[in-house]
Write a structure and sequence with these properties.
Elements: H1 2-26, H2 30-36, E1 50-54, E2 57-58, E3 62-64, E4 70-71, H3 73-84, E5 92-96, H4 99-107, E6 113-114, E7 128-130, E8 138-143, E9 158-162, H5 166-174, E10 179-183, H6 186-194, E11 200-204, H7 205-214, E12 219-225, E13 234-236, H8 240-255, H9 258-266
Parallel strand pairs: 1-5, 1-6, 9-10, 9-11
Antiparallel strand pairs: 2-3, 3-4, 6-13, 7-13, 8-11, 8-12
Helix pairs in contact: 1-2, 3-8, 3-9
The structure holds Deoxyfructosylglutamine (SNW).
Deoxyfructosylglutamine binds near residues 116, 166, 229 and 231.
């Protein structure tokens, strides 16, 4: 009897507490208002922030600056897209991870999205979903060895690949009699290349170009087209509202010239593909 009475007397208190919480949270703006309404339209881990998995050593796509900030084409494009969904700079949180962990981490809800020049393939679509494409280019072999000018030249050589990349898959299928050496990230592979542990490293074209500028002995020797696997934002399977919102914002960023501006900033001198430019 007594317990019930105490319990009942607590109900208004609990109600008041909940109301106070909702009123407090509602003060933080549009995103938080949706939260107060119990709303999470994009199915985010935390409705107030977009949690993004990325890489620290894939410059100029994505990398960490000396100040420890994430930067690069993919990062700036994603920030711009997120701002169109109402998420400002502080509401987009980037975390660096090994490439091979990115897609599993999205599938396991550690991140809402992965952004790191991740190519769209049927195999990957079995575990995660992709936004529309925003970048298409080459897979490139970087080396100081002048004997390497074609797949043939890789025979008997040691070639670095980052685990889980399209480069790993392509090399395994197409570079016969080449020793593949798997690395967790680009920096460790390029260190191995510079100290002679491997003869070449296989990575994305713009990142290869960047390492070539940093270490002038290293040249791009082979380019493999990867236009059938354009990079997209990777999201959890079935998170359609988020995917559609990202696509709408992405197309707006292409249409108003934002994409072009970022492309010219981060990939100067590279040919400009017209499929992502404003349509008349
Ligand atoms: O398939 C290409 C795409 O055409 C564009 O050139 C950007 O890079 C790719 O998406 C391939 N990127 C690799 C992959 O998806 C490696 C990504 C990385 O190192 N961050 O496996």
């Amino acid at each position: 009897m007594r317990a019930t009475r105490i319990f009942k007397s607590l109900i208004p208190l609990v109600r008041a507490g909940a109301m106070a919480l909702i009123v407090a949270v509602a003060g933080f703006g549009a995103v938080s208002k949706a939260l107060a309404a119990g709303d999470n339209p994009y199915g985010l881990i935390d409705p107030k922030v977009i949690s993004v998995g990325t890489m620290g050593d894939a410059k100029p796509y994505t990398f960490t600056t000396a100040e420890g900030e994430f930067s690069g084409f993919d990062i700036e494009l994603f920030r711009n897209v997120a701002s169109r969904l109402g998420f400002n700079k502080d509401q987009v949180v980037f975390t660096g991870q090994e490439f091979s962990a990115l897609m599993p981490s999205v599938a396991n809800q550690r991140f809402d999205v992965a952004v790191a020049a991740i190519g769209t393939t049927e195999a990957r679509k079995k575990t995660v979903d992709f936004s529309d494409g925003y970048l298409a280019g080459y897979l490139s072999v970087l080396t100081a060895d002048k004997a390497i000018t074609s797949a043939d030249g890789l025979k008997g050589k040691r070639l670095g690949v980052v685990q889980g990349t399209l480069q790993e898959i392509y090399a395994g299928k197409n570079f016969k009699e080449t020793d593949l050496v798997k690395f967790p990230d680009n920096n460790s592979a390029v260190s191995a290349l510079n100290n002679g542990t491997v003869d070449a490293h296989f990575l994305d074209y713009e990142a290869a170009k960047q390492y070539g500028e940093r270490y002038p002995d290293l040249k791009i020797a082979i380019n493999i087209p990867s236009f059938d696997a354009p990079a997209g934002f990777v999201i959890r399977k079935g998170n359609d509202a988020f995917r559609e919102a990202l696509n709408t914002a992405l197309h707006a960023a292409m249409q108003d010239g934002t994409w072009k501006t970022l492309y010219e900033k981060w990939f100067p001198g590279s040919p400009m593909p017209d499929q992502y430019l404003p349509k008349k």
